[in-house]
Amino acid sequence: MAKALILVVDDDPRIREIVGFALRKEGLETVEAGDGAEAIAVFDRARPDAVVLDVLMPEMDGTEVCRALRARSSVPILFVSSKDDEVDRILGLEMGGDDYVTKPFSPRELAARVKAVLRRAAARVAAPGKTAEARRMRHGKLELDLDRCVVAWEGRESVLTATELGLLEILLRHPGKVYTRDELMEGYTDGAFVSGRTIDSHIRRLRKKLAALGGEPIETAHGIGYKLGECA
C-alpha cells in the first residue's frame, strides 16, 4: 500500500525538519514548501493527501493558501500557528481547516492529528463490494455523496472538507436525533481532544454551505448539540 504524502508548509526550515521527521517516523511521506506561493506550486505538482500549513508566513499567509487550496481540493488541512487565541482557531477552522495545532507543539501529537484527519478522509473511499448507491445518503432534498465528498440540495452541489463530510454523515444516520457535542466530537476526533467550540465552528461553516445551496436543515438543540431537521 502506498504511503500517504503530506505537504509541510512553514517558512522556518527547523519546523519543517521537526514536522517532517515526526511524520516520516509514523510511516508517512513528506514534501516541503517554505512559503505560500511555493506551497501552491508543490500541491499542484505532488497532489498530497494532507497539508500541514503554518498560518503566519510573510507575503502569503496560511489563510490565503487555504483559500487557494480549497478552490482546488477538499484535501485535509491542519493549521499550525504560534497564535493560541480561540478567535484565531475558530477563524482557521471556518476558513476550511480540518484541525488547528498551536506552537510549541508535541511532534507526536501533531503526527497523531495528521493521521486522524487522514483516517477521516479515507472514510470517503468506497468499501469493496459496495455499490455507488450505497455510498450516497439521502434525506428529503438533501443528498450526501461520500465518495465525491459532495453535498447536494435539490441537485445544487457543494464540495465539503473531510471533517464537514464526517459531521454531516453522523447527523444523516438518524435524522431528527439530537447529537450532543460529545457524540459529534467522538466521531470527529478519533480520540484526540478538541473543544466544543471547534465542533461549533465546523457546523457553522457547514450551515453556510448548505444555506448557499438553498437549505437550512441543521438545527440547534440549545445547550445540547445539533440535529438534522426536515428536508422536505
In short:
The chain is of the alpha/beta class. Helix content is 42%, strand content 22%. It folds into 2 domains: 5-122, Rossmann fold (3-Layer(aba) Sandwich), CATH 3.40.50; 133-228, Winged helix-like DNA-binding domain superfamily/Winged helix DNA-binding domain (Arc Repressor Mutant, subunit A), CATH 1.10.10.10.
Q: Give me the count of strands.
A: 12
> Major beta sheet, specifics?
5 strands, parallel
Spell out the CATH superfamily of the largest domain: Response regulator
* SSE pattern, N- to C-terminal: EHEHEHEHEHEEEEHEHHEE
Description:
This protein is an alpha/beta fold. The chain has two domains: about 5-120, Response regulator (Rossmann fold); about 135-230, Orthogonal Bundle (Arc Repressor Mutant, subunit A). It has helices at about 15-25, 35-45, 60-70, 85-95, 105-120, 160-175, 180-190, 195-215, and strands spanning about 5-10, 30-35, 50-55, 75-80, 100, 135-140, 140-145, 150-155, 155-160, 180, 220, 225-230. A five-stranded parallel beta sheet has the order 2-1-3-4-5, sandwiched between helices. The N and C termini lie far apart (about 45 Å). Mean pLDDT is about 85; it is low at about 125-130.
